[in-house]
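Chapter summary example: a protein plus iron/sulfur cluster.
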Amino acid sequence: MKIDRRGFLSLGVGAAAGIVVTPLPWKLTDDLSIWTQNWPWTPVPADGEKAYAKSVCSLCPGGCGISVRKVEDRAIKIEGIEGHPVNDGGICILGLSGLQTLYGPTRVKQPLMRSGNRGEGRWQKVDWDTALAEITKRLAEIRKAGQAHTVACVAGSDQGTVPQLLKRFLAAYGSSNFIRTPSIRDSYELAFKTMQGSEASAGFDLFNSDFVLSFGSGVIEGWGSPVYMFRANSELRGKGKIVQIEPRLSNTAAKSDKWVPINPGTEAVLALGLAHEIIKESLYNKEFVEKYAAGFESWEDAKGQKQKGFKDWVLENYWPASVANITGVKPAVIHELAVSFAKASKPVALCGRGQGNTPVSLFESMAIHALNALVGNINQKGGISAVPFADYINWPKAPADAVAEAGLQQPRIDGAQSDPFASRYLLNRVVNAAESGKPYALQALLVWEADPIYTLSGSAAVKAAFDKIPFVVSFSSHMNETAQYADLILPDHFYLERYQDIPTPLGMAVPSISLSRPVVKPQFDTKYTGDVLIQVAKGIGGNLAEAMPWKDYEQCLKETLGDHWDKLNAKGMLIAEQYQPPAWDKAFKTASGKFEFCALTAIGETVSIEGDKESYPLTLIPYDSMRLANGFIGDPPFVIKTVSDRILKKKDIFVEINPETAKQYGLADGKSAVLETPRGSARVRVNVFEGIVPGVIAMPRGLGHKAYDKFLAGKGLNVNEFIGSVEDPVSGLDAAWGIRAKLTIA
Amino acid sequence: MDGKGQESGPRGILVLYFFIGFTISVIIGWIIFPKLLYSQKKQPIDFNHALHVESVAEGCESCHFFREDGSFSGIPKLAQCIECHESAMGENPEEAKFVEEYVAKGIEVPWLSYSRQPDCVFFSHAAHIKMAELECKICHGPIGESEHSRIYEENRLTGYSRDIWGKNIAGIKQNSWDRMKMDDCAECHADMGGGRKDACFVCHK
Ligand code: SF4
C-alpha cells in the first residue's frame, strides 16, 4: 500500500495526537530541564557523607564559634553556631567566605625559598627538611656570632600558645624582641596600666549599657569582636542610645542615634570638653571620684608645691568655646552630650577609630577613659573593665645559657617598655631601627600571622627597612605582602586545619578560652609553626632544646591546656562564668591604690599629622569597612565582590569628599583626580559625599594589594602607602590618624 | 502547486492512518519510551532488609542512624557493617560475597541510592524524623519489609533514580512514597502547615 501525501499527514496527525496522550512530552520536558542542570562542565563538588564540624574562627581576633558543613573531607559551608556566647549564630562576611581562603589559589602550598630578588616572586620549592635545616643554620650562626639579640619576631597576637612559644623561643635564644602588631589593644593596655595599674585587656559590657559614646569606634564595622559587637548594637536598639563621634558618616554613625561630626584627630579634646561640662555641672560620680580616685582635686606635694588636679586642669583648659574651636563641635552640642552621658544610668565611652586596627595616642585613650571614670562605670554593669589576661599557660621559665643571658641584657630593638608610659610593643620603631641600624642592626625577623608590609603606615619606609634585614622568615599560609618579601616561607596550617587556643576575644568582659579544632586535614604540605619552633630549638640544641621539651605542638597544647583540653574539645569555649570584675576598693593596683587621673594631666597634647597646611590644604583619613579585610589576610573573592562601586570601580579607588570642598577645588563626582600626600601621589576617583566633614577626604583600608590573587591584587590603592607614621611622644605608638593631602583635577 | 485535481482516497483509509499513527505513538510513549529512558542496574549485593530488621533492636535507626551532631548517616558505611559482619554470620551466598569482596578487601560497597536528591536540595532527616516525627515509610515506603534489593533504574538523561519521578511513568501516585519530586515535598508541607508556604531557602540553601 502506497501512502500518499494526505495519508502521510493523517499518520503524522495521528502520531502527534497519540503522543500527547502519553506522558512522553511532559516527562521529557521535565527531564530535559533537569539535564540542563547537570551538564558535565558545571562544577559540582563530589557527593558523599555529610557532617558538621565545630570550631572557632580565627580570621580576626573575634573568636566566633563556627559550624562547618562537610561532604566527606571537603568543607562546603561555614555558619555561626547558634547559642555561642560570642556570635550566637551570627557570622561576618569574611568568616562566611573562609572556605575561599582555605581552598583559594593564594595558599602557600609548601616551604619556599627565595630564588630571585626580594619581592620578585621567584621561589624555589623545597621540602621541610631543607627548609628547617636552612632556618636552623641561619639562626645558629647568628647566635654563635654573639648576635642573638638581633633576632626579632612580629606576631599578630601575644596571647595563646603559639605567640607564647615564639616569645619563649626568643628568650631561650637570647632576644627580648617579641613584638605584637599595633592596634587599639596597645592604647587600652597602656591606659589601664597608667591609670589603674593593671596589666589587662579591655572588656565592654555593651549588652547592659544604656548610653554608648563612641569616639569613632566602628561598633558595626569590626571594632572589638565584630559579631559580638553587632549583637550588642542590636540589643541596644530601643533600650539605649549610641552616639557616634566621627568625621565621616560611617555605617556605625548612620545607624546610631546621633552622629556628631568632628574634626579628625581632636577626639581627646572633645572628651576633655565633655569632662569640663560634667565637672562644671557636678554630674560626676562623687562616690567613685572622692573615694577611689587620686589626682582629681589639686593637692600639695611633699615639697609643699601646689599640684594641679584633673578637675582644675580641665576647668581651666577645656572650655566649651575653645573645645568647639578645635573640634568643630558646637558648645551647645558639647554641653548636651556631656549632660546626657553623665545622666544615663549605665554610660560607657569607647575609643579606637574604625576597627581599632591602629592605636591612638595615650593622651586620647586616657582622656576617653577618664570620662568612664568620671561617670563611675569602671567594673560596673554596662561599663568597661580591665579583663585579666588568660592564665592557663604556666610553663617554667625558659632556661638561659650564657649567650641567652648576654642577649637578654641588650635593650629591645623598639625601646618599648623602657619607661612607665611606653607601650609594650612598638613595631613602628622597628622600621626606623632597621633602617638606621640603631640601637643595633637586625639580623633576622620572624613573622607570624602578621603582614607589616601591608598594614603599617608608610609602606615604602617599611619595605626599605625590610631590605636592611638579611633574613626574613614568614610563617604565613597565604602569599600576603610580607610573605612575598620574605627569604623563607614556612607555611603554617591554616585556621580550619589546625588546633589553636584562642584567649578572650577582644572587647568581651569575661575571661575565656576557645579552641579551634581541625575541620579538614591540612590541604597542603604545611606545618604547625609550633612544630617548626620545637624542631629548630632541638636543632640548635642546648638550652633551646631544653626550653622546648615537647614532642610536638599538639602535645604542647594538650599539656598546657591540661584539664581544659577535654572540656574544650567538647564545648569549644570555656567561659569563667563566675568571674566578676573586682570592686573599686580592690580594682586598682597603682601606687595610690586608686584610679589615677593625675597620669593624664602629666602628659602632653594630641598628636598632629605629617605635612604642612600650605602645600596640602586637605586632611586624608583612612576608614574601615566590614567588606574590606585589612589585616594579615586580604579579601577573598566573594567579599571583594560585595564592595560598592562608590568605593571601588574596576581598578579605581574612590576618595570621599564633601560637596563644598569638591566645589572649592573644582572636583566632580566620579571624575578622576590626583591625590598627593607627603608620602606619595596617585590617581583616584572622586566620591562627592555629604557624610564627610569639609576639608577632610577619606579612603578605605584593605585595597591596593600587590599580593594575593587576580580578584584582589591591583585593585585600588593601599592607603598606608600615603600615610606616614607619627610617633606619639609619650607612648611611642604610631598614632597617625591621617595625613595632610591635596586633591587636584587629573 | 495544484492539488485540486488529485483524487482523494476514501475517508476510511485516512482514519486508519490516523489510528495507526496514534497507536504507534501510544505504544512508544507508554511502553518503549520508559524502557529507553531508564537503564537498569543491580545492587552490588542483594540486601535483605526484612532479615536485618528482625535481628536489630532499634528498627531502621539501628543502621540508618543520627550522628551526635544531628546529621543523618544515610546508607551505612562499611565500618558499620563490619561491626556485625567481620566474618560471615550465616550461610547466605550474598553475605559470603559481601565479606569476601568488600569486608576482606576493605572496600566500600558502591550501593545505589534510590532516593538521592539533586545537590540543590537541602534535606534534613532530623527535622522530619525527630521533630515532625514522621515514619521512615512515609517517604521510603515499606522498604524495611523487602527481602531482595530491587533493580535500580537510572534516568539516562538526568542521572537520577527512577524513584524520584516514581515508577508510574505518568507520575500518578497512590502512596505518599511513590514519588519524591518537589511537588511531593510541597504537597505534604502545605498539608502539615495548614496551607503555609515555605520559603525557597528552607530547602534550597
Ligand atoms: S568576626 Fe572575626 S572571628 Fe568572627 S567570623 Fe568574622 S572573621 Fe571570624
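Key point: Residues 5-37 of chain A form one domain.
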